[in-house]
Specification:
271 residues, mainly beta, 14-stranded antiparallel sheet, 3 helices, 8% helix, globular
């Protein structure tokens, strides 16, 4: 159950082309801007609990930029926590922060502070893309180390925002998009398959979306990769609208319920 809430978001919303540092090009970000705030609600369903509101998540971009080792970055903070009765048997209080280079949309610094049931974790990661290396610190175990990384590796949160800058006009049905990301002292890979355009009903109204089916890593929380579906708004914002999947016991759904300070008009909202 480690990284429970964010495993869905990570696997579901990463899509980016890999390149080493020498090949990096500046990314034209027309999808989001400083001050954007997205609020999500997590729903859980099982024979034991019925349908319950299990948690909430807020993802917010800083109102100003920060300098990290000479590079201008956006600070993106994500807070996720369980709510109500769900907290009685599995309490989650997670905080993630990433500092993303505004020119290349790659992470420069990543912070993880999570508490999930009896499990706690605290890590700091510095990304040196010029040297194709990450330095990491495990604050809980008081250990540290370095790892060579390959092509344009993202972190858990930066990958989601990089995905939103991607030109979806080039996608063809059943295209597979490769993903690389650093998490907990290792680099992982997965793929995302584009399925179709679909208009779905949500808490904020009907939204025209791009539908994706991710391939899930072995040993992840999902029991079948075909059970996870992700929907992203089909407009310039590329907002994460909905992710839903069966898990080991029951099913989960994460849905966008509020938004503020979008960079572009929310044209895919069909109210």
């Amino acid at each position: 159950m480690k990284n429970f809430i964010f495993t869905i978001i990570l696997v579901g919303l990463n899509l980016y082309a890999s390149a080493n540092f020498q090949e990096l090009k500046k990314v034209s970000n027309i999808a989001f801007t400083n001050g954007e705030k997205l609020s999500f609600r997590l729903f859980y369903s099982s024979t034991m609990t019925g349908n319950v509101t299990a948690g909430e998540m807020i993802s917010e971009i800083s109102s100003k930029n920060y300098i990290v080792r000479g590079d201008t970055t956006l600070n993106i903070k994500v807070i996720g926590k369980t709510k109500g009765a769900f907290s009685w048997f599995f309490k989650v209080n997670d905080v993630y922060q990433t500092y993303v280079d505004v020119n290349y949309m790659i992470p420069r610094y990543f912070i993880k502070r999570i508490s999930e049931g009896d499990y706690e974790d605290s890590r700091d990661v510095k990304f040196y893309h010029e040297k194709q290396r990450v330095d990491y610190i495990n604050n809980k175990n008081k250990t540290s180390g370095s790892l060579k990384i390959g092509k344009n590796v993202q972190d858990l949160i930066s990958a989601i925002y990089y995905a939103r800058t991607f030109n979806t006009d080039t996608f063809k049905l059943n295209d597979d998009i490769s993903i690389s990301f650093f998490m907990d002292e290792s680099v992982y890979q997965t793929k995302l398959k584009y399925i179709e355009k679909q208009t779905i009903k949500t808490s904020i109204g009907k939204v025209e979306c791009l539908k994706f089916k991710p391939s899930v890593l072995t040993g992840g929380v999902f029991k079948d990769e075909d059970k996870l579906i992700v929907y992203i708004s089909n407009d310039k914002n590329h907002l994460p609208i909905l992710a839903e999947s069966e898990v080991m016991i029951g099913s989960v759904k994460i849905e966008l319920v509020q938004y503020a300070n979008l960079k572009n008009k929310f044209t895919s909202l069909k109210n």
